Write the structure tokens for this entry.
Amino acid sequence: MDTILAENLKKLREKHSITQEALAEALGVTAIAVYMWEAGRLPLEYKMIVKIADFYDVTVDSLLEDETADNSNPVATDKISFNCKICGGDLDYNYTDGTCRCANCGNKWSISELYPKYAGVIATITKANRILDRKTDLASADEANLLFRQAIIECNKFNDAISAELVKVCNEGQSKAEQLEIYCRGKHFFDNKAYKSAVTELEKVRGFRDADEMLKRCKRRN
């Protein structure tokens, strides 16, 4: 679990003079779960983060932000090149595996090697994209969405071309996470033979994974 989120949860609870037991009762969980969240030893689903934010009447973003971070703009010398450092060619970025390759000479690097200050953000984006590529459940969609939100918050601390590009990548990732969530609902209905409900959901994500194939099978059964 993200250490910043864990620290913010503890600070917020103590600020309101609420015990772990009282918070647990309000959220419908066990006191040990609250303890584990604050210790950073138990992951939080996005829906629970939203519930906690509503309980304290704060934004989700405020729970994910590092209040001690330096939010100043980068200095003029902190410039980043979009070109290959060998031949000057254009770079193609793959945020799934965290690498970029020159379209001209084919040389390949870790993105964080080229842009060290974004190493943490890129690692977060890479993790989120891998989740979307490899998993097919609602909890994973929530986790990926949360990771993209965290990355956007980190990017907003900077003011340069790379941060703008990374925010676009995160926005696209959030759209994929939303697609995965809809797909999971449709697949749940399909697996339980609720074909009419399955069609309603799967129609929203045509072309996503095997949604089209499930739609065909649903319509044959109706």
Remarks:
- Residues 70-80 have pLDDT under 50 and may be disordered.
- Residues 3-64 form a domain with the 434 Repressor (Amino-terminal Domain) fold (CATH 1.10.260.40).
- The chain has three domains: 3-64, 91-173, 186-221.
